[in-house]
Give the backbone structure.
Amino acid sequence: MFNVNLRNQVALVTGAGRGIGKAIAQGLSDCGAVVAVNDIDPASATLTAGTLTGEANAYVTDVADSAAVDRMIEKIVADFGRLDIVVNNAGVEPKASILEMTDADWHSAININLSAAFYTSRAAGKVMRAAGSGSIINIASIAGHNIPIALRSGYVASKAGMIGFTRECAREFAVYGIRVNAVCPGVIETEMTAHLRQNVAQMQKWLEDIPQKRLGIPEDVVGLVLFLCSDASRYLTGQAINVDGGKVML
């Protein structure tokens, strides 16, 4: 589908057991990359790794666990000898009002959506620094800009933090030849949005607010991720790019 050459590159995708992460892993594999498939669910990680077209290994790790992330990065380098691309995709979206949200739900959103990206970028960044190159792509959200989502304060806060972290990480890592960018999807047809897409009124509201008059599909995100992995984007870093059918314009 995409004409990007990533042969001899090793890529890690977190939360790749389903949805956008799975599609990104497939896209990277189709372009020739060796893919390290991460997910906290063993069955999902193994299934994704087994369906990819090229070489891939599954790494069952809780990316909200700093020490576990360090071990995962060490294992990937031991297995493949390098790490060129990281896609921080793992995420959750707990639903609750601020007044009713539990500490556990808040910390889950911050730890999985934001802290995990820090842990992974820190560990992978040391490997990339030694190599003198690398690309880190953080999957944020238009919710991290100016598009609030009702009853999702933890999610919104974590994605806004992801965009800020992306920019500072890009600033610090540039001297090492490492580029860091964020991709900010709008509403994408995945398992996470399946229940909301069954709501006719919600679907009508979404489509009214999207100039292209359709929801995104995972492949719409994959194309941008592959571009950010490639040499075609070699002078692009610290950016947070929306993939939303034009919704942020409105």
